[in-house]
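== Sequence and structure of one protein ==
=== Format: two labelled lines per protein ===
==== Data for this protein ====
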Amino acid sequence: MANNSLCIALITEVFFDDPTGERLRRALVDARSQGADLALLPEIPLNRWSPASKQVSDADAEELDGWRQLLMAEAAESVGIGLVGGAIIRDPDTEIRHNTALLYDGGGACLTRYRKIHLPEEEGYWETSHYKPGTEPPKAITGAFSLVVGLQICSDVNRPQGFQILSSGGAEVVFAPRATPPETYERWRLILRANAIMSGTYVVSTNRPRPEGGAPIGGPSVVIDPFGHVMMETTDPIAVVRLKRSVVEKARREYPGYLERFPDVYAKGWRKLTE
């Protein structure tokens, strides 16, 4: 069973007031003690929610392997647990900033970085004022954990292409950290369920837990199976769930999971739109 399942801890908490990483490490110890192989944090969890305003601060961003990234890597390594975190990473040559999700293994190695592509710009979520859209598709990560995993970030889930690319690449679980308002949760729940069904993957999404800087953030973290069934909705600081490969395999044998994908056809359509 261990090689065909993955135990995930949803950590519905942020750590921007934890400069030494001690509170994060304690949360990971708690998650590990409950059997978790990997912990998922919310969107940019070691930052305050700076997009609450249009005012940009240099302190919110860091270069590759900056202090927030090192803190997450060290916490993962010290506890021996996989970790999905994030940071606003600044390119030292161009000064361009990206909201970046980060996947660490239990040894603290960063396995992949994914830059958020779809950015809102509205009250409480002035994201295009703070960073630019990513320009690379997500990729499935194989071999690091007992299930194949991939990353999306918050608003990315409103465009299904990322999920389709990840699923086609073998992903069985897609992590989607987010920062969303409680009053829109039913819409987020619906779109996350739809993505799970269309991609035949588990969808695991942790939310920032409370309002920040006037932005109305809050509402449940959620786990959805490949059939679109909601397995867990929680506002607990730490909640643990086990995901099984057999469920993914069953979903992909049944309708609509067995339907073939035609990436060449889709690509042809997209190319025509850019001509």
Q: What stands out?
A: The first helix runs from residue 22 to 33. DSSP finds six helices and 14 strands in the chain. The domain at 2-274 is CATH 3.60.110.10 (Nitrilase/N-carbamoyl-D-aminoacid amidohydrolase). The chain has one domain: 2-274.
